[in-house]
Amino acid sequence: MLEKVSKQIYAKIPPIILKKFFRKDQKVYLKFALIFDFYELPLVEDAIQLVESCLTEYKVDASTLNVNDFKFTYFIDCEIEEDYLPPDIDIICEESECLQSLGYTSLMEIMLFPKNDEKRVEDRKQVEKLMITGVQLLDTILNQLKNDEKVKHHLKIRSDNKIIAIESDSLFISDIYKKISNELAKSKTIRTPYINILKGIDGKDKLIITVNDASIVQLLIRVLT
Asked: Would the pTM count as exceeding 0.90?
């Protein structure tokens, strides 16, 4: 979702620098995302306001969150069901424009992009802290969505996934994919995540992996650092 927005953000932020691979600096771009759907579809406007209320504690401006000295640019995206009408709605007009204007959403995505400003994240400990902070922030947001009385009354979340997307040159992404797959094959305790490579343009690919288990986050940190 919002691939065009992702590209615009990546163009404005400095990459994470990994120094371990191929004896050279390896530039990567990270995205942390929380994706969830609903038992009952909420109105888009209401859903966005409720999600925004869960971010207030960390906001430093309209599009930036600050946690553990890391800043994240965030976006909220919605998948709109134009033809959906809840079964108990009172229809007061028959014009299609009236019905479509209600705007219900079936799926939402909260995206976090590390915003490093002039500071480059390249030290192993910095990379590890960033990865843990990003996933912990997703956890915190999800817990608030599920446990805040007002929010959970209106947003009845059915399923959710936490995701990390890593974008870099295709050779590096392929190498990372193989390393992760080998680690998973050797492990008897790690629950296998969803993992996939999305082919891009200009020699840039993106690795997508679910990080619903803390052991996957640690595995990813080991592979990247």
From this structure: no
